TrEMBL record:
This is Dienelactone hydrolase. InterPro entries: AB_hydrolase_fold, Dienelactn_hydro, FrsA_esterase. Keywords: Hydrolase. SUPFAM superfamilies: alpha/beta-Hydrolases. It comes from Microlunatus parietis.
Amino acid sequence: MSYLHLGPYSDWPAWSEAVAARATPPARDRTRQRVHEALAVVDETPADVRVERTWRLDGIDGEELSWSVGFGPRTHAWLLRPSGSTGPLPGVVALHSHDGIKFYGKEKIADAPEPTPPSMAALRTKAYGGEAFANRLCRRGYVVLVPDVFCWGSRRFPLDAVPEPMRRDGTDEEVAYNETARDHEHLVEKYCRLLGTTFAALVNREDRIALNYLRSRPEVADRLGCVGLSGGGCRAAMLQATSDVAASVVVGMMSTYDGLLDRHVAQHTWMFFPADLPTDTDWPDVAACRAPSPLLVQYNRQDPLFDLGAAEAAHARITEHYADAPDGYAGAFYDGPHKFDREMQDDAFAWLDRKLEAAQA
């Protein structure tokens, strides 16, 4: 087989032992162990939580929170709950996407009182049906936590900490930062390796900290969900694998690893390749390793980030993991490009309604 982006190295996959090792789905308990080792999973909570401000707007009571994860800038997050609600209500961690945009994080998918930044309005039009989906979900009767994560928004590296040869110049601070951060992620992964971790592990750790904070809130019911598109879908899959989240929605982030090899590696984040997991574990195995825990994966047939055949193969592999509990997994295919539009949101929210209501029963 010839691979466009491997060229004269197109015989490399056939030589690789990892490709052969991934051919057979591993036992789920073994995958869980491998994932926990790769992501260094321990139970952690945020330190020094502060309420920075509160607001009431358009039927939502909001709080801007900040906390420490032990190093670096403080994490900022928005907690959204229906105005006047007394709880307990189902809780969901809404996970922002990657997008090659790190200047902002939570602002991609949620609104506070300030006007939406123009670049975020444009992103929502392209990827989210023009919606702040976290606010839509909140108005449906959920407490929604929307945190920034390592390298995004409040947790981003300042530009002057980036080596000068990597910095992009420009009069638009946001554009210059995002162009710089695209290359800087490779350097951050090197820092992670030198410091005994990985980019994926740090992101997953911070998402688990956010989940544990949401669990601690008195107005939140016992069992929780998570949802995210693209890089947020990657985060949702890892959170599904490393926590006891009761329902997980992975949007636009599912493929076999083999299906990435021809033309679909360059555009993906280091989050997608946790430590040495790909040596013997496929990405759908990671997402499904807690079967029968409820999992919804939404696929876009014309998604330029993934090969459709690889997405269909991933769907089949997850279905195999859920063979003894077919109600636990739903895989839905939609026409269109890389997105989480209103139709997909409506379907995902209805699925969360069913699964989290059942979880509370």
